[in-house]
Amino acid sequence: MDFLSKKARGITPYTAGEQLRGKTYVKLNTNENPYPPSPRVMETLARMNPDDLRRYPRPDAGRLREALAAREGVSPENIFCGNGSDEVLALSFPAFFDGDGAGACFADITYSFYEVFAAFFGVPVKIVPLMPDFTLALDAMLAADCQGYYIANPNAPTGIGIARAEMERFVASVPDRIVIADEAYMDFFGESLAPLTKKYANLLVIKTFSKSYSLAGMRCGYAVGDSALIAGLMRMKDCFNSYPVDAVAEAACVAAVQDEDYHARTVKSIVSERSRVRAELLNMGFTVPESKANFLFAGRASRSGEEIYQRLKDAGVLVRFWDKPVLRDFVRITVGTPAENDALLAQLHQILS
Ligand code: PMP
Fold this sequence. Notes:
Layout: H1 6-10, E1 26-27, H2 39-46, H3 50-54, H4 62-72, E2 79-82, H5 84-96, E3 104-107, H6 113-121, E4 125-128, H7 138-143, E5 148-152, H8 164-173, E6 178-182, E7 203-208, E8 221-225, H9 227-237, H10 247-257, H11 260-283, E9 295-299, H12 305-314, E10 317-318, E11 330-334, H13 338-352
Parallel strand pairs: 1-10, 3-4, 3-5, 5-6, 6-7
Antiparallel strand pairs: 2-8, 7-8, 9-11
Bound molecules: 4'-deoxy-4'-aminopyridoxal-5'-phosphate (PMP).
């Protein structure tokens, strides 16, 4: 007797990057931040009030909403917090897309969770291939019949970013469709659309604490948008999990948001290492699109992505590889500390020699 539903049997789940324990790797495979979170986060955690653990947290993560509203220059009613931006993205599918609607449109090469969420929530998809240079085919996306869009900006795993002005033209030209901008890596680019959510009721911006704030382990992400969109996400949350942001995560994320200086410093050093590592990879003969994120997408003629991935792994450096068309010619390398990046580059030199 198979007790699983047809859905549970039939769906292809998302595959998360390896989180290997045991052997110590130079871990450049899941776009984590190589620096620890702000010291203020650690102090806040050490000072947690037992009452905050004994009691349920605020269902809307109210204190964090306020801190984020201040950061983004909006009101708390324009902020929705969830258990990682993955959960915010997940809830956006039933909130804004119908099973019998025209569907959600996104690129063929982008964050692969969109397709999984769409399947899970029974939302049709309209997939538009990237251009040969890996940029988004925005005109083809405009021409697609759909209820709305998911656009990762910067895109994953290519790292390519779209400037705010170009994104604004896109959002403005589809007032009847929702545009969900997944800005998981935006702090490494600095062209966020969040300020434009006040002007465009069809724009939802989704961000995370996992990357630029070094808090992937906390699982917290958020959306910025018109209060009607935020209310829709709240309705979906309250059909699924009343308290997606736990008290510890809320306290940690408030502390992180309030330490702007630390955030800016770590982002700056990752951005500067990104240029250095990319230049070295180009010197070694890799093709590397210019990245606006905290990772580089690198491929080299005559070496498969799998070979590079496997030989780096054997040498103790973990990067990400996908055995899929186009992607299999590349690996995705998270930008680490200068020492981690040096280790990566040294191993690559060996592999190529
Ligand atoms: N969007 C993109 C483009 C990502 O790469 C990731 C990280 N896997 C996420 C969203 C989700 O991040 P998190 O759930 O940790 O906020």
